Amino acid sequence: MQLSDYLAQADALAHDARTLLDALDQATRLDDAKGQLNALKDERLVALQGALRSLAAEDRRAAGIAFNTLKTTIQESLDAFVARQSAGGEGQRFDATMPARRGWQGSLHPVTLVIDEICDIFRELGFTIALGPEAETERYNFGALNFPPDHPAMELHDTLYLGDDTLLRTHTSPVQVRTLQQFAPPVRVLAPGQVYRRDFFDATHAPAFMQLEGLAVDEGISFVDLKATLAEFARRFYGASRRVRFGPSYFPFVEPGAQMDVEVDLNDGKGLRWVEILGCGMVHPNVLEAAGLDSERFTGWAFGMGPARIAMSRYDIHDIRQLYDSDVRFLEQFAR
Length: 336
Ligand code: DAH
What we know:
There is one protein chain. This protein is of the alpha+beta class. It folds into two domains: 3-87, no CATH class; 110-334, Bira Bifunctional Protein, Domain 2 (BirA Bifunctional Protein, domain 2), CATH 3.30.930.10. Helix content is 42%, strand content 20%. It contains ten helices and nine strands. The strands form two sheets. Strands 1-4-5-9-8-7-6 form a seven-stranded mixed beta sheet, with helices on both faces. It has a two-stranded antiparallel ribbon with strand order 2-3. Helix 1 packs antiparallel against helix 2 (30-51) and helix 2 packs antiparallel against helix 3. It is rod-shaped, with a radius of gyration of 40 Å. The termini are far apart. The structure holds 3,4-dihydroxyphenylalanine. 3,4-dihydroxyphenylalanine binds next to strand 8 and strand 9.
């Protein structure tokens, strides 16, 4: 091979390599670019290296320098491609007009919001908070609350038993008895807490959920106090224009027993309708006696409600399981 041919071929290869890399899109992966470059180099660079030996001895030095320059040129073209790619590529991926990601703002759970609001209202009405254990005895959960020993609520399929006499409380009503044993009347307490039932976990039932119990015991307390206090609570919680109504109901630990309904709008286009909010009644004399009080002297009233249901109607939640999913996208809506 003539030296002039050799130098021309080296030049041509340098040119083709640069043209190839210049033509590549900036989004091309580096290994893809290298692959295309190698395909180009494979035959022609190897051929030029082999051709060195076929040159006349006096031309080899000049050809060797040209060969090394060619390799450097190809490498420089590749480096330039990488530099262009990272500068241009980054520039493309960075969009200065995108709104900044705001910081994650934690929030209280909707059920907690409802409980807090209800507790605030009753605090203004003179109530304090009382708590009791979630692992209860049969006596506090049932017996002392005037459940007969064969009451169906005590069946294995309704209640989660931990041992012979110990169970996960099925309601917050046992806190009534515990409070009356600990504090002498006048007593006005609110007892929020977790309760447990052997229920399926579906759209409307959960095996563990919150309840809110209320209790007022003193001398001379009557059904009028119950109605006035609970109606006042409803006015403050739902708005002064909402009507409430009381109807008869049965619970072993109250006599008479009642339920309170409030007119609420469930946002389903059907307007206001009556929704049961809580069970209530005058504390049964047997409950007062079980707590060691003289039921001739003291009277009282109590109520129990489910803040999850109240949260669901208030916030338009249709599946109770959403309250347990810990899905940040759901919970985020309640940040305030
Ligand atoms: N403990 C009842 C339940 O879990 C709710 C209840 C009803 C509580 C009437 C009360 C009451 O204090 O007076 O279904």
